[in-house]
Amino acid sequence: MAAPKIVHYLRTCLYVTSPSPQVNLRTVFSKSIDKSSHVPNILYCPCVYVPHRAYGRKVKPKPPKITHFEYSGDLRTLPALDEDTLLYNFQGLEDEIKGDETLERLSSVGYASAKQLANHRQELVRDRIIELFGLDSELEQEIALLTLGIRQMIPYCIQYRTDKGNKIFLLKRIFRRRRLLTHLREIDHERFEWLLRELKIRYVIPRDREEHKGWKHDKRVATQDEAKALQRQKLQELKDKLEEEKKSFYEFKSKILAEIERDLEKYGLDRSFLDELQVVEKETEKPHKILTWDERVKLGMTGYIKDYYG
Description:
Layout: H1 2-17, H2 25-32, H3 94-97, H4 101-106, H5 114-133, H6 138-159, H7 164-187, H8 189-199, H9 214-267, H10 271-277, H11 293-302
């Protein structure tokens, strides 16, 4: 059972390695048997070259480069803080801290953690809004804090554009601030404009949301547009044809009128002669004759009655 398999393998080798018809199986057998080998009747098959096929992996495309967030409406970036500035929690203790270098460093912005810096900025913004709008300015404070967070996250999202989670969080903040600004605009337009000037924000009036109608509606509209285009094309063809017929008719009319003028001159007639021929007497409709029973029967049998129409 092993011999047919070997022969089939050799034929496959011949087909792959040598497409020439002069090379046969006997030649391969004679060249494949190594007579100097110590092990008798060992068949050494020729090496078959099978080209290696490389399977490429799917390369994940890079996300589109984010260069700006202009649609947020922010007209300025977040300013940098002076490293020697005291943190918000230590303000009012300048006399106790002054003179102690260690306390000055620990209470300064330069040695603060990210959480302490965020809290410092938020408290400063909140104090500024309360100073401008009063204690009953919860909506303005929320808008100002959202603006602070947006301006902190925009440089990060531009630098690390593969971080989709923070980008989505930033977009949610932008859209929430826009909704709050729209609400403030409806409540008090004067405070709305004042807040925009203070925060350096450009407000864009939101568009009405377009209704999603689906692919069926799009296909229906496309089909209707094609039908209208075909109608316009056919109407244009009919108009062109009508213009050609008008042109030929006017040419024919001019020829006939010229012949009539020549005939009138030939026979010495006046133009009024034609006008008299065109006078047609008006025919008045006459009422139908009222038939008797016998006349109706006769009309049904013969289809004719004398003086039926008067």
